[in-house]
Amino acid sequence: MQNINKTNQSEKVEVMALFNYSQTPCQPLSFRKRTGREVEITELLRARVKFVGNTTRHIFDCLIGRQQCRLEFDSTSLAWYLVG
To answer: b/e for 38-75, b at 16 or more Cβ within 10 A?
Structure first.
């Protein structure tokens, strides 16, 4: 499987997510890169939480077709990142 983020650096993205009260309280559905390219997530593989100092990072491993990507939500800055 290929990784969609070819720069191997974190890139700030805009994410459309579904929030609910099931076992996965947040599920990213799509994101928009800085270039304006809209990317639809086809499958959520794994969701987990990581505590870093005073902030919480919500980490989502996703599939886009056959490519794998990782999205992170920073609970302090309320920003989403596509991680390389």
So the answer is: ebebeebeebeeeeeeeeebbebebebeeebbbbbbee
- Round to the nearest angstrom and report the end-to-end CA distance of the chain: 14
Spatial distance between the Cα atoms of 60 and 82, rounded to a whole number of angstroms? 10
Asked whether 25 and 48 are in contact (CB, 8 A), the reply is no
What CA–CA distances, in Å, run from 63 to 2, 48, 71? 10, 16, 11
Task: List, in order, residues 6 or more apart from 43 with CB less than 8 Å away.
Answer: 62, 63
Q: What is the phi/psi pair of residue 30, to 5°? A: -160, 165
Record the pTM.
0.84
Residue 10 contacts residue 82 (beta carbons within 8 Å): yes
| pLDDT tens digit sequence for 43-62 | 999 999 999 999 999 999 99
